[in-house]
Amino acid sequence: MPHPLIPPVPETELPSDVASAITQAQRDGALSSTVLARIWAWRPELAHAQITLHSRFYDSAILPGRLLELVRLRIASINQCEVCQASRKYEGVSEEDIACLIGHVDRFTPAERAALNFAEAFATDHLSIGATEIQALREHFSTEEVVEIAMFTALMVGSGRLAYALRAFGEAS
What's the rounded Cα separation, in Å, for the pair 35 and 170? Predict the structure, then answer.
């Protein structure tokens, strides 16, 4: 794998609050690799905020873990992020589920399909999203849940693309 284009802050030089946040996020399943978080650590206050935001989707989400994992993995596929595609953050998603993420198959519930459709549109053509797409989500989710889906989708698209742009793959020393 290529080296990151911005070197990660060495683990021994991380500010203690960022190091603690990274450790906790790994325990919670929010981070499978520390490379991007250690690049963020060049701006410790922003790194801490970003890690905390990622963690909220794993320690206090109102949506089911399966739904978030399906959305995350669909975005990872669109972003072509091999690290994200290989990591698993929720056990309730099978390899068969993952194989069906591309294409519109009847494997998923209507609610899961609505969230996946939104995530795909957001990641590939965000300008196509309008009232119809939001209404499709609202048929299955509360307003709070729609906001969580939208924020999670934005975070996964942006973080995945940033990781790719900076070549923040795997575990760099």
Answer: 7
